[in-house]
Here is the input.
Amino acid sequence: MLRISVLALGLAGCVPMAAPDVPVATVPLVNASGASIGTVRVFAENTGVTLRIDATGLPAGMHGAHLHAVGKCEGPKFTSAGGHWNPTSKQHGHQNPAGYHTGDLGNLGVGADGKLTAGLLVPGARVSSDGFGDGPVLLDADGAALVIHAGQDDEKTDPSGNSGDRIACAVL
Here is the structure.
């Protein structure tokens, strides 16, 4: 009886979490015409939020990737996703001496076959307010979106790294 009581007290403060390698969400990645070109799986980790992207039909080359502040992907321009997710009020780009947006995810390389497979970590971020840690919450009241841009992010120009048009989007 005592053993059960101690166990119950020990579990009372635990937060349920997904089993390792089980996504919190799997969402479609769409192109400007609204067609699904792949998926984005969202994982809650001790170190942040991990996004795993599997897509086809993208132009070959380097493409800037960012988290945007609003969970809307209305084509063809995806402006409904708002600006970059920037809960710490920093500048843009990992090479910016003033710091970078939490939503700056760098560049993704797409092969000549148009396929993209990538894993991205958003360090310190939490999926929700009851998630791991005390970092910024990605999925707040208006959600968030992953956006892939037409061009390469220069990693320093504020506010968007000169990465061009938004060509793919996923509501997280």
